[in-house]
């Protein structure tokens, strides 16, 4: 599975692509940051982010896009820019027929470090270790994007296997229930936790 993680931002939009499956070492495909100038018109900045993300999607051909779920913050202008960038990533994915997954920051942190309240240094350290990188990805937006991608490979695997086991969805046929999806996610998280306690990868 090739997953593109997007850490949305108006000034720096992190993009990280990893490849692998649950239970096996992951490999880094790409990591970068799409930047825009703070003094530029907002519409032009959004255009620049859109073009940057779309160019990377066309070049790297991800199978799924994982985007950070945006929550309200005290700084309204910051959260607005973040939400706008997240929307651009989702539209770019939809335009190419790619599924989009939303993960909260705490979900990504828990998947990577085992602690949903881990700080950026801890996340960066674990991303570097898991992808066997020679140096930590910089800036933090790049590491966060990779963390989102890794999170989806590990946590999205159970949901994908559940959907595959139930077969293709057809009109009039119900897909997996939310309870089934949650059960699959919990099982994946438990496997990951047991594996981390043994110093390995999720099984």
UniProtKB/TrEMBL annotation:
Positions with a binding annotation for Mg(2+) 2: 68
A molecular function (GO) term: crossover junction DNA endonuclease activity
One Pfam assignment: RuvC
Cofactor: Mg(2+)
Cofactor binding summary note: Binds 2 Mg(2+) ion per subunit.
Binding sites annotated in the UniProt record for Mg(2+) 1: 7, 141
Keywords noted in UniProt: Cytoplasm, DNA damage, DNA recombination, DNA repair, DNA-binding, Endonuclease, Hydrolase, Magnesium, Metal-binding, Nuclease
Catalytic reaction annotation: Endonucleolytic cleavage at a junction such as a reciprocal single-stranded crossover between two homologous DNA duplexes (Holliday junction)
Entry keyword Hydrolase: yes
InterPro entries given in the database record: RNaseH-like_sf, RNaseH_sf, X-over_junc_endoDNase_Mg_BS, X-over_junc_endoDNase_RuvC
Enzyme's top EC category: hydrolase
GO biological process, one term: DNA repair
Subcellular location: Cytoplasm
GO CC, alphabetical: cytoplasm; Holliday junction resolvase complex
E.C. numbers: 3.1.21.10
Biological function: The RuvA-RuvB-RuvC complex processes Holliday junction (HJ) DNA during genetic recombination and DNA repair. Endonuclease that resolves HJ intermediates. Cleaves cruciform DNA by making single-stranded nicks across the HJ at symmetrical positions within the homologous arms, yielding a 5'-phosphate and a 3'-hydroxyl group; requires a central core of homology in the junction. The consensus cleavage sequence is 5'-(A/T)TT(C/G)-3'. Cleavage occurs on the 3'-side of the TT dinucleotide at the point of strand exchange.
HAMAP family: RuvC
Family: Belongs to the RuvC family.
Protein name: Crossover junction endodeoxyribonuclease RuvC
Annotated organism of origin: Actinomadura harenae
Recorded name of the encoding gene: ruvC
């Amino acid at each position: 599975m090739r997953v593109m993680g997007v850490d949305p931002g108006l000034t720096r939009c992190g993009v990280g692509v990893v490849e692998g499956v649950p239970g096996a070492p992951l490999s880094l495909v790409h990591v970068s940051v799409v930047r825009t100038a703070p003094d530029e018109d907002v519409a032009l900045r959004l255009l620049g982010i859109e073009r940057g993300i779309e160019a990377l999607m066309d070049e790297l051909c991800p199978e799924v896009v994982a985007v950070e779920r945006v929550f309200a913050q005290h700084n309204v202008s910051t959260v607005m820019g973040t939400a706008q960038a997240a929307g651009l990533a989702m539209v770019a994915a939809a335009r190419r027929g790619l599924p989009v997954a939303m993960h909260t920051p705490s979900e990504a942190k828990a998947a990577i470090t085992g602690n949903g309240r881990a700080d950026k240094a801890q996340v960066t350290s674990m991303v570097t270790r898991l992808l066997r990188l020679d140096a930590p990805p910089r800036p933090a937006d790049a590491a966060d994007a990779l963390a989102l991608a890794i999170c989806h490979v590990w946590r999205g695997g159970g949901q994908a296997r559940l959907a595959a086991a139930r077969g293709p969805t057809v009109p009039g046929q119900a897909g997996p229930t939310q309870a089934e999806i949650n059960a699959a996610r919990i099982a994946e998280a438990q496997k990951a936790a047991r594996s981390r306690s043994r110093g390995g990868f999720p099984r």
